[in-house]
Recover the amino acids of this structure.
């Protein structure tokens, strides 16, 4: 594995020839070639078939000069092995048939054995590594304990997280027993991806922004910390959440070589708050990609100016790319990041 990729160097806050860029959900529905495959296969079938997952992972790399690939998977893939009834309902997203809300529900959950329960993920990672031939690094990922627990408790997506917070506040002993189990699953799932060849990892705590700093410290911080301690330091780690402006210092305390920033905070201000002993990733508003390309260029420049050329910035959207974004605008953004940050011409 080359450690000289600009993405990996930026994770380590080393100087790079220009700013690396990749996009969350870059392997997905905004690409016509993805939609063609999706018309023939269910989402879970694509995740669980190594050849399909590998193909989807590399599709954006054939179009764009991205600086990293991210394995095509889903944060909920470990759940069935725990005893969770998971399906992806058409038009509804993930639906969980047996939400966890009592001590008995928690006791019934089982640990996972990745070699037995998610072998397709390891094979997909190996296939992608072979195809990429070390052209760019491959990122693996998992949901963070809080976000996974919230999905399981709510039975799917939620607006107010009433069931999650009710359990957290009303039955803290059940909450902590549950998070203990989920944390061990996340650690096993991520270590398995490292063993398979993932060269960096991202922990998605997409829903943690619903919490106050005090609640984060009590109900989340110990478990996210355990994840980062449990997976060690063999590959760079990215800690990402949304609506987390008030939580950034606590997220840094939990761990991660890189802290992901959404568009609700100025990058320079967030970096000052975090301290410059950590790298940052972000933070263009995904909706900017619907704008005219002159606006896209202006907003890309604004993010780069906010980073100030300091080592340790990875350009990304503040959340995943949306399915209806014009493909040419995604490509323009990637090219603009490289051009405006001084990438050497081929």
């Amino acid at each position: 594995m080359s450690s000289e990729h600009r993405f990996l160097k930026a994770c380590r806050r080393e100087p790079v020839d220009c700013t690396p860029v990749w996009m969350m959900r870059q392997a997905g529905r905004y690409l016509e070639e993805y939609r063609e495959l999706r018309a023939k296969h269910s989402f879970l079938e694509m995740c669980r078939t190594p050849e399909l997952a590998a193909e989807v992972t590399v599709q954006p790399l054939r179009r764009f000069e991205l600086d990293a690939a991210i394995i095509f998977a889903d944060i909920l893939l470990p759940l069935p092995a725990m005893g969770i009834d998971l399906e992806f309902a058409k038009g509804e997203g993930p639906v969980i048939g047996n939400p966890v809300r009592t001590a008995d529900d928690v006791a019934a959950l089982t640990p996972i054995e990745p070699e037995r329960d998610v072998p397709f993920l390891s094979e997909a990672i190996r296939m992608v590594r072979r195809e990429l031939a070390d052209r760019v690094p491959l990122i693996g990922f998992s949901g963070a304990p809080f976000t996974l627990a919230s999905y399981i408790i709510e039975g799917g997506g939620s607006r107010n997280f009433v069931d999650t917070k009710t359990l957290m506040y009303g039955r803290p002993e059940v909450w902590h027993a549950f998070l203990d189990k989920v944390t061990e699953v996340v650690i096993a799932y991520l270590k398995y991806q490292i063993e398979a060849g993932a060269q960096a990892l991202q922990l998605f705590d997409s829903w943690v922004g619903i919490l106050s700093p005090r609640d984060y410290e009590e109900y989340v911080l110990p478990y996210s910390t355990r994840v980062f301690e449990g997976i060690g330091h063999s590959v760079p780690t990215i800690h990402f959440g949304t609506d987390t402006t008030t939580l950034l210092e606590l997220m840094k305390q939990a761990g991660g070589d890189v802290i992901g920033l959404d568009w609700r905070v100025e990058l320079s201000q967030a970096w000052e708050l975090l301290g410059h002993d950590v790298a940052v990733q972000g933070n263009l508003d995904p909706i900017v990609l619907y704008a005219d390309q002159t606006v896209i260029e202006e907003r890309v420049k604004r993010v780069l100016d906010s980073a100030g050329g300091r080592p340790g910035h990875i350009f990304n959207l503040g959340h995943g790319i949306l399915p209806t974004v014009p493909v040419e605008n995604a490509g323009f953004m990637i090219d603009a990041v490289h051009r405006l940050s001084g990438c050497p011409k081929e």
